[in-house]
Amino acid sequence: MNYSRFITAVSAARKASPIRVLTELMQTSPPSLISLAGGAPNPNTFPFKAASISIEDGTRVEIGEDLMKRALQYSASAGIPELLSWLKDLQRSLHNPPTADYRPEEGKMEMCVTTGSQQGLCNVFEMLINPGDTILLDAPSYPGTLAALRPLGCNIISVPSDHHGIIPKGLKEILSRWSPESTRKVNSDLPKFLYTVPNGSNPTGTSLTTDRKKEIYQLARQYDFLLIEDDPYYFLQFSKPWAPTFLSMDIDGRVIRTDSFSKILSSGLRIGFLTGPKPLIDRVILHIQVSTMHTSTFTQLMISQLLQQWGHKGFFDHVDRVIEFYKTQRDVMLTAADKWLKGLADWHAPAAGMFLWLKIKGISDTQHLIMEKALEKQVLLVPGRAFNIDSSEPSSYVRASFSLSSPSQIDQGFQRLAELIKEAI
Ligand SMILES: Cc1ncc(COP(=O)(O)O)c(C=O)c1O
Fold first, then answer.
1. How far, in Å, from the CA of 363 to the mean position of ligand 1?
2. Residue 268 pLDDT
3. Where do the Aminotransferase class I/classII large domain residues begin and end (predicted)?
4. CA dist., res. 294 & res. 25, Å (int)
5. What is the Å distance from ligand 1's center to 203 Cα?
């Protein structure tokens, strides 16, 4: 892989901050080292001394005085070492990435902790996109991605998809505008990457099948584009075995994967992680060095202590409990949809995530219905337009989330939506 082809001039110009390098060196040095180098404050002056956090299983995460001093201090931009190493083990055991043992310049698997997967996505987009670049998007799409992409001035091509995700034939057709040989041209205008949410997509709830992933990966090889696998709902797949990921197929080192603990441990602690070829992840880490410097040391330590206590088994036992909750909620929503919306809307049962994507029959644009009429009826959903590349384009869809409402609220909510649709058509 020629990674330099993908990187913007801004990203290529990033250099390691000498102070950050020293800080990181200090943190891995033996206690005998006398350092007069650091510009870090003295944690003995900080007001917080210790914390004890109770966990659902009756145990506690203890952050004693010494650990608290670390938790309140600056830390490495890539993430605290113990969390990074736990996450690397996790990625190896889940995805067995072919690149795990490659040489660094060949695209060896590298990782860093990010402040939610959103930061990882935003930094990756800024690393890759020059104004005028072409990219491929699995649309309708997550608004956080659209909002990060739009100001970068790229040419976004929407890839056709159905309830099994991206349709490889449709992608192939789009790519046929270029010849695979143009990958060798300097300044080729081939798409730089394809972005997709492969499991329980936000907003459509769809999950990409393994066969389609394989076909898409082959197309990425043929036309030499990167794959951005934004997978925050990976741990919310309702049936096992979980689908193989693009990362697990990545023999070239062309997959950048964003993971998130937001849906299973906490969204407010802001812990995500980025996995991809070292030459690209290193660029993101340089960006982190000069922007956030690092994700909060406190939240990283809090999560890391919990994961060390749990081990992989405890972590997956917890994930199973979370899945059980969302699966039950999904079933409640499907029952309510069957009861109230039959004949008024179409939908597919999501196999992961927290969203049901409803196509409202006889209504070409749901914007007015939801933003005005639904509010009057005291029910809130998201109109489909919010997920379109061009948000002024009409959409006959709405997104309903089954994460927060009780079964009776879901039932009543759909009853109100049914009344609304009937009144509107
Ligand atoms: C598809 C998708 N990607 C990324 C994110 C961002 O998640 P995080 O909380 O990890 O930043 C979300 C959040 O809803 C999402 O739905």
1. 29
2. 98
3. 67-417
4. 15
5. 11
Distance 63 CA to ligand 1 centre (A): 28
CB distance 197 to ligand 1 below 6 Å:
yes
Q: What is this structure's pTM?
A: 0.95
Ligand 1 pocket, residue 260 CB under 6 Å: yes
Q: Per-residue pLDDT tens for 62-114?
A: 999 999 999 999 999 999 999 999 999 999 999 999 999 999 999 999 999 99
Q: What is the arrangement of strands in the sheet containing 255-260, beginning at the earlier edge strand?
A: 109-114, 272-277, 255-260, 226-230, 193-196, 134-138, 155-159
Separation CA 314–CA 309 (nearest Å): 8
Tell me which DSSP letter residue 115 carries: S
Side chain identity at 205, as an amino acid letter? G
Q: Is 267 in the pocket of ligand 1 (CB under 6 A)?
A: yes
Cα 257 to ligand 1 centre (Å): 12
pLDDT, greater one: 369 or 22: 369
145-178 pLDDT, tens digit per residue, is 999 999 999 999 999 999 999 999 999 999 999 9
Query: Which strands, in side-by-side order, build the sheet including 345-346?
Result: 345-346, 355-360, 397-401, 382-383
Question: Which helix (H) or strand (E) is 196 found in, with range?
Answer: strand 193-196
Q: What is the pLDDT of residues 56-73, one digit of tens each?
A: 999 999 999 999 999 999
The Å distance, Cα 388 to ligand 1 centre, comes to: 17
- What is the distance in A from the centroid of ligand 1 to the CA of 214? 24
What is the number of the ligand 1 atom nearest to the C-alpha of 230? 3
Question: Could you tell me if the CB of 116 is within 6 A of ligand 1?
Answer: yes
DSSP state of 42: P
CA 82 vs CA 112, 259, 353: distances in Å: 12, 17, 29
Answer whether 273 contacts ligand 1 (Cβ < 6 A).
no
Q: What percent of the chain has pLDDT over 90?
A: 90
Pick from 319, 316, 353, 314: nearest CA to 333: 353
- Of ligand 1's listed atoms, the one at least distance from the Cα of 121 is 4
Cβ–ligand 1 contact at 117 (below 6 Å): yes
Q: How far is the CA of 73 from the centre of ligand 1 (A)?
A: 27
Confidence at 141, pLDDT banded by 50, 70, 90: very high
232 lines ligand 1 (CB under 6 A): yes
Choice among 30-39, 68-77, 269-278, 310-319 with the minimum mean pLDDT = 30-39
* DSSP H helix total and E strand total for the chain: 13, 15
